[in-house]
């Protein structure tokens, strides 16, 4: 289906961002949108999206009918203009525009390729992952790199703090490939219990013991696929969610395999997991090297050991997320920064 489009007119003033750039120059530019039915969603309730742009970028925005005038510093005006164009294109493509999406566009607006990422071209389609329930587009500059690696490389290590979308984006890519038949199975795994996988003291059978530790993977699955499909595919074995100990002795062929919380594996566990790789498979290893909970304190993380050994090997990509890539509520990024600043 062809993507819906609408024209956006831009009037550049003599002292606007279209003129030669100087760091201290002021600028003013005007955008006109031809599709009035989306203006409410574009501006947000009580112009909340415009207020968010003003607060984040330090510009002044005046909306009159279908026209928006932006004033402020030259670079800030240029970024605000690009973000508004991205917001408009997102709505015209049928995607939602929540505060998180606006924040993501603002975060990426310093990237010179923002408009190409959102709108795409004949040579390079927009970067996105389509699943049955939603379409995921990058929400940070590093997610752009990550999505490209997920589509291209055999083994991908995703390293960084909580809230950067490491596992969620990987699950979305896995669901997309399962839906289009690129792989036949989806296998999600993680260390069942951070403190050594000691499940014997927990009540219930094995499934009841490990399910609470695998809950984040289930949540991501249900967000990308209708619940009845998840249940049906799990019953048929097309989707498997299991602790890493269950991977031993297997060859994972025709599968998209994800290991979450990988910082809590030992080097032996990580080697065992990586060597399960089979034909026509893709493997994603996610973790935060700064959140190691392996018993013993001084035990080496299998994630750190694997990255040290494998970074630069052909067919293996290592993507490093940082605090700036946190895509949950903005306060999550500030919390991570505060903890890392105090504890190093």
What structural keywords apply?
disordered N terminus, 2 domains, alpha/beta, Ribosomal Protein S8, Chain: A, domain 1, 6-stranded parallel sheet, 4-stranded antiparallel sheet
Fold and architecture overview:
There is one protein chain. The chain has 344 residues and is of the alpha/beta class. The protein has two domains: 8-119, K Homology domain, type 1 (Ribosomal Protein S8, Chain: A, domain 1), CATH 3.30.1370.10; 129-343, Rossmann fold, CATH 3.40.50. 40% of the residues lie in helices and 18% in strands. It has twelve helices and twelve strands. The protein has a six-stranded parallel beta sheet, with helices on both faces. The protein has a four-stranded antiparallel beta sheet with strand order 1-2-4-3, with helices on one face. Strand 5 and strand 6 (135-136) form a beta hairpin. Helix 2 (48-57) runs parallel beside helix 4 and helix 10 packs across helix 11. Residues 1-6, 13-22 and 112-125 have low confidence and may be disordered.
Report the end-to-end length measured between terminal Cα atoms: 50 Å
**Series of secondary-structure elements, N-terminal to C-terminal:** EEHHEEHHHEEHEHEHHEEHEHEH
Averaging pLDDT over every residue, what do you get? 79
Main sheet properties: 6 strands, parallel
CATH class of the largest domain: Alpha Beta
Q: In which order are the strands of the major sheet placed?
A: 9-8-10-11-7-12
Seen as an oligomer or otherwise, the chain set is: single chain
What does the radius of gyration come to? 23 Å
How does the helix and strand content classify structurally?
alpha/beta
Helix content: 25-40%
Q: What is the count of DSSP helices, taking H or I runs of 4+ residues?
A: 12
């Amino acid at each position: 289906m062809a993507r819906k489009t609408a024209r956006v007119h831009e009037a550049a003033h003599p002292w606007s961002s279209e003129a030669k750039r100087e760091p201290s120059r002021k600028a003013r530019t005007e955008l006109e949108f031809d599709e009035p039915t989306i203006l409410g969603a574009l501006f947000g309730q009580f112009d909340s999206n415009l207020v968010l742009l003003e607060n984040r970028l330090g510009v002044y925005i005046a909306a009159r009918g279908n026209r928006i005038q932006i004033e402020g510093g030259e670079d800030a005006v240029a970024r605000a203009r690009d973000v508004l164009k991205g917001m408009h294109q997102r709505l015209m493509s049928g995607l939602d525009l929540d505060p998180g999406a606006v924040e993501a566009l603002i975060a990426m607006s310093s990237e010179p390729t923002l408009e190409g990422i959102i709108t795409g071209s004949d040579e390079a389609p927009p970067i996105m992952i389509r699943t049955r329930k939603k379409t995921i587009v990058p929400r940070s500059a590093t997610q752009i790199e990550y999505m490209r690696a997920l589509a291209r490389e055999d083994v991908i290590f995703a390293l960084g703090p909580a809230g950067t979308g490491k596992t969620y984006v990987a699950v979305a890519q896995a669901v997309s490939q399962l839906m289009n038949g690129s792989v036949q199975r989806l296998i999600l795994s993680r260390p069942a219990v951070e403190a050594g996988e000691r499940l014997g003291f927990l009540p219930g059978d094995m499934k009841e013991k490990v399910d609470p530790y695998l809950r984040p993977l289930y949540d991501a699955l249900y967000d990308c696929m209708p619940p009845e499909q998840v249940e049906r595919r799990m019953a048929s074995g097309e989707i498997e969610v299991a602790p890493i100990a269950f991977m031993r002795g297997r060859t994972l062929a025709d599968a998209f395999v994800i290991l979450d919380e990988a910082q809590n594996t030992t080097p032996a566990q990580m080697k065992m997991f990586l060597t399960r790789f089979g034909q026509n498979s893709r493997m994603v290893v996610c973790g935060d090297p700064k959140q190691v909970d392996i018993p013993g304190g001084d035990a080496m993380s299998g994630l750190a050991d694997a990255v040290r050994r494998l970074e630069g090997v052909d067919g293996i990509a290592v993507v490093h997320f940082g605090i700036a890539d946190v895509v949950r509520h903005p306060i999550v990024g500030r919390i991570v920064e505060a903890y890392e600043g105090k504890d190093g």
